[in-house]
């Protein structure tokens, strides 16, 4: 088995639920819009219209390292500070965290891939499964439903391909879905959403920076060039803000560049597959579901084989450390018996089951600062 060296392993951080995380941004925005019963831990100023622009894959650390490619965003950085994504640091979890204002232990979307309790089937929470009802899987009220009940017009501006999908229904139901399939449409439709009502909330999602990071890496000309396009999008949205409005620019996770020499095949090694019922998660954070009675042996094998390359913990240890926030009883069974959180630039790949994903350069899901920290940049037109 190829086990990369673990030199200069940066420490893990923890999500800052209850203070400075994506789970705190949405309630704070609703509170700023005057929605009753919403907490505001981020203490955002009162406004009549608010826009949240989420740029998939634009972590705080890579943004700082590439300020020259994003002059508008760079102009906002010095007055800003990072918040944290949720855990795992992956899109499905973060979009639902932002869309509900809850930590993953409450909303239940706890990673890219999880085993459906009572089965050996995997639910891929970006692609979904027609046999799983998104509104039963994630029954909590979304921020859009709460905004609408309070008389705030809530819009969701994103690619039309996502409309009506399982993740959109789990994380964004209650919003008016405005399909926007390129940067120009995103800017135009966002302006329309913010000016269509006296009190408005617009969530804007742009996925392409993440795609370039996955394919070519964050440390690539592709990623930096597209960051410039994102910078222009943010500037255009900011320039079109109506009076008494605020724009908040954030992300769902950062990203780590990996390579062939940092990949560990956790699927084919007999020591790592022994006792495993389902292998889920993704390359930077694996969730391992053990056969009955085999959890202790699986834990020991994964700890031994991945020593120095990943931190391997039990479900109970992950919950006790607050990685998912407080965990509801119905969510607990969705979490793997064993979790492996990759250090450094290690990728825990499964080339047979996930041939495309295993070959990607940029990966995310773990708790390194590069993956966990995301920006919270602000623009207001409050007089």
From TrEMBL:
A molecular-function term among this protein's GO annotations: hydrolase activity
InterPro entries given in the database record: Alkaline_phosphatase_core_sf, Phosphodiest/P_Trfase
Pfam family, one: Phosphodiest
PANTHER family: BIS(5'-ADENOSYL)-TRIPHOSPHATASE, ECTONUCLEOTIDE PYROPHOSPHATASE/PHOSPHODIESTERASE
Record protein name field: Alkaline phosphatase family protein
Native source organism of the sequence: Nocardiopsis mwathae
Phylogenetic placement of the source organism: Bacteria, Bacillati, Actinomycetota, Actinomycetes, Streptosporangiales
